[in-house]
Specification:
The structure is a single chain. This protein has about 240 residues and is mostly helical. Helix content is about 75%, strand content about 0%. Helix 5 (about 145-155) runs antiparallel to helix 6 and helix 6 runs parallel beside helix 9 (about 225-244).
């Protein structure tokens, strides 16, 4: 009995749906159709519009990409000559994929190392040239020039930094002439401090060396007032050396 009721319910539902479908009105579009015409001028406007340009432009290869492709082709020919076309697989396939990157990295490393070596050699050679020029200048001043006259001229020109330099070279000259040091172009100021045996002379020379390094190498600008105070230790040591 329950089965019959379910069948009757389904039949009634189907009839109700069909009746609703038939009840809906159907509307037809009877508007006139206009033909759209496209002229050549219309097409030209689209051709010149970049938004409608669907051509794919391949980017130009740079030098690294060309080198990589060359290495890849070279290795491909190498593997083909040994194993035949398309036979490289497994471990050899991995090597074939990685090796171009390894070779490219090695090539870049060698190029960078080469340029760094060239630049370092140039820097060293320039430093040696500058050092030799500096030593030659000091040697010329100490051995051949009238250093007190150079000091006087520097003071007249108000170049007090240069005057301090000449004061220091005059001290080196007096120390050499009194056999306190053995002046050599390649020696440093610390070498001369170690050579001086007298304690008070060593202390005075160490003091003027600090002043000289501070003013000359530190490019410290001094005026007339500061110069008058800074020159006193130099004159004290030079007068001491002259009297002995």
């Amino acid at each position: 009995m329950l089965v019959y009721r379910l069948l009757l319910l389904c039949f009634c539902f189907g009839q109700f749906t069909f009746a609703q479908y038939n009840a809906q009105s159907v509307h037809y579009d009877d508007a006139p159709i206009s033909k759209q015409e496209i002229t050549e001028d219309d097409l030209e406007s689209y051709k010149t519009d970049d938004n409608f340009n669907y051509l794919e432009v391949e980017p130009e290869e740079n030098i690294l990409e060309k080198i990589y492709k060359w290495l890849q082709n070279l290795l491909r020919k190498f593997w083909e000559a040994i194993f035949g076309v398309g036979t490289a697989s497994g471990f050899l396939f991995v090597v074939f994929k990685i090796l171009p990157y390894v070779l490219l990295a090695v090539l870049l490393f060698l190029l960078i190392k080469f340029f760094l070596k060239v630049n370092s050699n140039n820097l060293i050679s320039k430093a040696k040239e500058q050092g030799s020029i500096l030593f030659s200048e000091e040697e010329q001043i100490i051995k051949n020039e009238d250093i007190p006259a150079l000091i006087h001229n520097a003071i007249q020109q108000q170049n007090y930094r240069l005057a301090i330099r000449y004061y220091y070279l005059l001290s080196l000259k007096y120390l050499t002439e009194t056999d306190r040091i053995s002046w050599q172009p390649q020696k440093t100021n610390e070498d001369y401090i170690k050579e001086i045996s007298k304690a008070h002379l060593k202390a005075d020379f160490k003091n003027i060396t600090k002043i000289y390094d501070y003013v000359w190498y530190g490019e410290f600008t001094i005026d007339a007032v500061k110069f008058e105070a800074l020159k006193l230790p130099f004159e004290h040591l030079n007068n001491t050396l002259i009297k002995r």
